[in-house]
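Dear colleagues,

As part of the handover before I leave the project, I'm documenting each prediction I ran so the next person doesn't have to rerun anything. This entry is a single chain, and its sequence is reproduced below.
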Amino acid sequence: MEIKRDILWRVYLCFIGIGILCFLVLGKAFYIQNFQGIYWKKLSDSVHQRWSELDADRGTIYSDDENMLSTSIPYFDIYIDFEADGLREKNGKRFKDNVDSLAICLAGLFRDQSAATYRKELLRGYKTDDRYFALQQNISFEQYKVLRNFPLVRLGRNRSGFIVRTNYKRLNPFGLLANRTIGLARENSQNVGLERTYDTALKGQNGKQLVRYIAAGNYVPVEGYEIEPENGKDVVTNIDVDIQDLAENALSKGMSENEAEQGTCVVMEASTGKIKAIANLSRQRNGSYWEDYNYALRATEPGSTIKMVTLLSVLSEGHTTLNDEVNVGSEGREFVGVRMVNDAERQPKPIETVKECFAHSSNVGMSKLAYQSFGSQPRHFIQYLHKFHLDAKTGVDLMGEESPVLPKIKGNEGLHAMITMSFGYAIEVTPLQTLMLYNAIANDGKMMKPYLVSRIQSNGVTLKVIQPQVLEERVADSRIIKDAQECMLAVTKIGTGKKAFETALYDAGGKTGTAHVAGRTSTGAKIKYDDGIYQASFVGYFPFAHPKYSCIVVIRTKAHPAKHMGGEVAAPVFREVADKLFARDNPHAESEGVPELKKDSSQFYYAGETRDIKKVLGEFELVYSDSSASNSWSRLYTASHQVVLKKQPIAGKMVPDVRGLGLKDALYLLEGMEIKVNTRGKGKVKTQSIQPGAALTKNQNITLELN
């Protein structure tokens, strides 16, 4: 009896213990669910869910006539969630009913594998319950529009399981045209050009999307939890595509003929300061030219183009007139003040007027004038540099503009620096600064601030207009401005620019410049004055009587070139730009010797197999300059009345440049490199979605736009 009571007591005790434990568990569960539930749900969500940024559509950069210079092209990544409820209900009936027709449609659209292969992959994904099956990546918008109407896909995301991720790639439809000025929008490095200056307006405001973790580091969007991005605004520039094109062609031709290392050409609207074109080219290792640095914003010793500062300063002092005579000597060198000064070329006579000194670019003559006016007060010369805004940046709406460099004026060293500055050394200014001063002369003394962007808009609605800005109402008295204009005309009539303009149908005012180069190259290599590298320049405006455009050309030569003077290297480039703009703006004027500017969708060039192009040229008996060598592929373009046939290198591990090619040739090249090609339009290739020179990757997709 005692044993039975003892056993029952123990059983009751166990039941009581179990009851208490159950009560505690239930109590804890109740507490967690009702008092800590929110905390644990948030903790779970933080592990399995996160907010992902939705990129805003970056705005477009337009030319002044609203041609797209830089735009974002959407590309789409397509995934399938095979655990979507719509695919699994009724034992997967919806998927099984549509998989065959879907596979046929996919094979027909992408042409990368057979319908049977697509069907096999889709069934495998369904069988393995793949939550993020990668179907296709980087498909174009045109392909995406077709895909949306395919069987199963058209039923919507919930019932089909199809997930779409949108990506954007930045595309410059005109390729090299104004490439450095427009700039680059890069994800992992700093933007450049207008893409950088106006990045805040262009990039818009990113949105947010809640995504859920599934497996293998993949996330899928959670429906209904997203904040839509605010798309970027569009930027409309002052760039004229036609002027930009002819500026680059003229600069490229002039540099190629002289095997020059780097150069820039800027065209500005005289009355407003609007930059209509800004071309920058540098020689690559293979001998071709590319835009890789904005030389218009780089400060260098200008050479004789600075003599406009000397002329204006001396005339403004009121003790000198254009007809005053200066003894420049017959030796080509004279001791002036505290230093010996050399003329680059012998002057036509030992005694010249002030106007002749400027026209023939006499270093001796201009330094003597500066010494007479400022020898006792060199610092006063610096004050004129301040008046002409040459001691500060122009403030152009492009980042990366270098500051001018002026010497310190102290004692005899200051006198030496002042004399040296008077003919273009001991001072560094940018080509854009120099153009701004000469544009003021063209504009009857009114100095305008150079600028590139005219307005900012969104969905076609103008949000902000950038107006021309006057920096100085008059940089000098009207009489002095007229004298300066007369001297600039003398340069092209009797002086160092005569040869370049003697057959022109219009008058132009200008100034040549030639300077020995010292400093460093863009790659960091050191240059000394005696290395034989020169900077040739020409700056001026046209037509002379009613100036419409001002322009500067600055070209750095190779070491010890055959030609290096501004009048023979830079002035012909200026002349070609001026000729074509004069012909465009005056279509009824006599055009003998002046080529008419014609618009061409291929930017004045064709491309194809070398033997085919030569056969056509032979049939039409056209004279052309041939630099195609033994290359199988070449490009044909016009440059200053000449037909040029140039080789087009094709590298096996890089995406080739197929712009200008017919579709048959483009397909032959690209598909031979195992690149998948998508096309839009008819005719020749106008743009390609992957830039030439990009590294090849396996099964790469490229979209060609035909014109």
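The chain has five domains: 2-35, 52-236, 241-585, 600-649, 653-707. The first strand starts at residue 49 and ends at 54.

All the best with the project,
I.
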